[in-house]
Design goal:
The chain is an alpha+beta fold and 257 residues long. It contains six helices and eleven strands. It folds into two domains: 104 residues, 2-Layer Sandwich (Alpha-Beta Plaits); 136 residues, Pseudouridine synthase I, catalytic domain, C-terminal subdomain (Alpha-Beta Plaits, 2-Layer Sandwich). The relative contact order is 0.19.
């Protein structure tokens, strides 16, 4: 039996999130169904983390244990893409070392939150970016974002769910940019994220900017360590899992199929 690593991209619009749930259409269950047909026995995959219903992924990472050596395994990516719905694409597959684990060995993740910042809504960005018709002050938003960097307690930005040992996380980068006319992006990279943490941060920072509030207001939200102190959760369809990183030494041991 061998570990196989997958790089997966998906449009989350039609899915109830990543995690398999009885009776619901999820990305995990969709990929598992295809793999089970290819190997002719039940296959379970493990992702680098969960994404909410409606959230997208540019590069989700998952792994599974191949129960047997398949003669056509070198064509695994092509075979899976032929069987998967158009909203899910396998971008690559690798033989990974035994110590590889999509979630446990990940060291950094990057998320991007996209906003269509224009007086007129966009048909093309529908379900792929949050529409904010009022002009955004990126200088003020970046002032807030800079305070989110470093090792901090993000309890105020955690939606209740699976218990965690600590709500302290290290954020290496948090920045607002405008890569194209009308499009604003919030990019955040860290060693881990709490449930809906990025969406809660985006919703809060947008509220602070829209109401011309000060950095002290954000500091007070952090200090409260209470979800009720933060603001609304930004819509799931603006969020993208952009990149999952692993130790370079581990990456070098992965052999592309």
């Amino acid at each position: 039996m061998r570990i196989i690593k997958l790089l997966i991209s998906y449009d989350g619009t039609q899915f109830m999130g990543w995690q398999k749930q009885p009776g619901l259409n999820t990305v995990q269950s969709t990929v598992e169904t295809v793999l089970s047909q290819i190997y002719n026995e039940p296959i379970k995959i493990t992702g680098s983390g969960r994404t909410d219903a409606g959230t997208h992924a540019v590069a989700q990472v998952a792994h599974f244990v191949a129960p047997k050596v398949s003669a056509s395994e070198h064509r695994l990516v092509r075979a899976m893409n032929a069987m998967l719905p158009e909203a899910v694409v396998i971008k690559g597959a690798w033989h990974a070392p035994d110590e590889f684990h999509a979630r446990k060995t990940a060291v950094r993740k990057t998320y991007i939150y996209r906003i269509w910042n224009h007086p007129i809504r966009s048909a093309l960005w529908h379900n792929r970016a949050l529409w904010v018709p009022q002009p955004l002050d990126l200088d003020r938003l970046n002032q807030f974002a800079r305070h989110c960097q470093g090792r901090k307690d993000f309890k105020s930005f955690q939606t209740q769910g699976t218990p965690v040992k600590t709500t302290v996380r290290r954020i290496d980068q948090a920045i607002w940019t405008a890569p194209h006319k009308g499009l604003v992006e919030f990019r955040i990279t860290g060693n881990g994220f709490l449930k809906q943490m990025v969406r809660n941060l985006v919703g809060t920072l947008l509220h602070l900017e829209r109401n011309k509030m000060e950095l002290t207001d954000l500091l007070n939200i952090f200090d409260a360590q209470d979800r009720q102190a933060a603001k609304a959760t930004a819509a799931a369809y603006g969020l993208y899992l952009y990149r999952v990183q692993y130790p370079p030494a581990l990456d070098k041991k992965c052999r592309k199929l």
